[in-house]
Design goal:
Elements (H helix, E strand, L loop, with lengths): L27 H8 L6 E4 L6 H9 L3 E6 L2 H13 L4 E5 L5 H6 L6 E7 L4 H4 L25 H7 L2 H12 L4 H14 L5 H12 L11 H12 L1 H15 E11 L2 H14 L22 E3 L9 H6 L7 E7 L16
Parallel strand pairs: 1-2, 1-4, 2-3, 4-5
Antiparallel strand pairs: 5-7, 6-7
Function: Specifically methylates the N4 position of cytidine in position 1402 (C1402) of 16S rRNA.
EC number: 2.1.1.199
Subcellular location: Cytoplasm
Length: 342
């Protein structure tokens, strides 16, 4: 292993840890402070993963947690945690974007707090067979729920121009076109089915490693993962579901790891708190908003991890926490809005 200073890369970037490290919930103290668990409360861990937030919430108060994850491996792992808190942890396999329906059909209509930790989990990254990581050789899969099209399907089946747009949009990759061109050339020779093969193609097309140390393959892998799992759509649907499930004074705590995720959360909370005018900023001011604010953002609006945590846990470096409290106004529901401006 190189002895150079490790800058943000896949091994020490948002949502990534070494396989040798135990799972460390990011910004755990800050999330607990935002949720303020209370005895008798009902809480939802919308992104269960390895269960770090669920365990902390259950330990903080004599409460109940409903844990949701689309990954069957995560749900299987919840069984051990449920034994430690008999009758207080309920695990549900499914997408957090469908949490309202999943929980309503199980008799839960309201909650006192909801936590989200977006992105891929360290567990998924550390399993080569899941195909999320370019640190290991594995099938080019990337499906969190093990269903639907894989990353290999996108890489080998999309038109070159569409693939370039995807890499640019979801990976924020400036060299998306030459990368897509290189992928298209390589797949004409043989289908691209392995993670290391794709990573090498991308590295050659992207050029030298950036000064910040980020591996040239990082943004392309991020883009494919987001597309395969419809992660931004899931975030929008999950936030709408959280709005519907939280009772008045219920708390929402959301941890994001990159700008695309955080932009979705920021836009949603600012809009629902009545701080963003409806419609385009380029048009004359329209009529008063149709909805009363359904959230009030907590102060400070954006919380970043402290130096002690980032030194201890490199995964936390890019983490951002936004928290809000539900008002007693009716939920707005799905307004059909796409992501707005920052």
């Amino acid at each position: 292993m190189s002895r150079k200073r490790r800058a943000p890369s896949e091994a020490a970037s948002p949502a990534m840890q070494s396989a040798a490290q135990p799972h460390v919930p990011v910004m755990l103290d800050e999330v607990l402070a935002a949720l303020a668990p209370k005895d008798g409360g009902i809480y939802i861990d919308g992104t269960f993963g390895a269960g770090g937030y669920s365990r902390a919430i259950l330990s903080a108060a004599d409460c109940t947690v409903w844990a949701i994850d689309r990954d069957p491996d995560a749900i299987a792992g919840a069984a051990k945690l449920a034994q430690d808190f008999p009758g207080r942890l309920h695990a549900v396999q499914g997408r957090f974007g469908e949490m309202q329906a999943l929980l309503n059909e199980r008799g839960l209509a309201q909650a006192d707090g909801i936590a989200f930790d977006f992105g891929v989990s360290s567990m998924q990254l550390d399993q080569p067979e899941r195909g999320f990581s370019f640190r290991f050789d594995g099938p080019l899969d990337m499906r969190m729920g093990r269903e639907g099209p894989t990353a290999a399907d996108l890489v080998n089946g999309m038109e070159e121009a569409d693939l370039a747009d995807l890499i640019f949009r979801y990976g924020e990759e400036r060299r998306a076109r030459p990368i897509a061109r290189a992928i298209a050339a390589a797949r004409r020779e043989a289908p691209i089915t392995r993670t290391l093969a794709l990573a090498e193609i991308v590295r050659r097309a992207a050029g030298p490693r950036a000064h910040d140390g980020i591996d040239p393959a990082t943004r392309t892998f991020q883009a494919l993962r987001i597309a395969v799992n419809d992660e931004l759509g899931e975030i929008r649907r999950g936030l709408v579901g959280a709005e519907a499930l939280l009772q008045a004074a219920g708390r929402l705590a959301v941890v994001s790891f990159h700008s695309l995720e955080d932009r979705e959360v920021k836009r949603f909370l600012r809009e629902r708190a009545g701080r963003t005018p409806r419609g385009s900023r380029h048009l004359p001011q329209g009529p008063a908003p149709l909805h009363a604010p359904s959230f009030r953002t907590l102060s400070p609006e954006l919380v970043k991890p402290g130096k002690a945590e980032t030194d201890r846990n490199p995964r936390a470096r890019s983490a951002r926490l936004r928290a809000a409290e539900r008002t007693d106004a009716p939920a707005w529901g799905d307004t059909g809005d796409a992501a707005g401006e920052d």
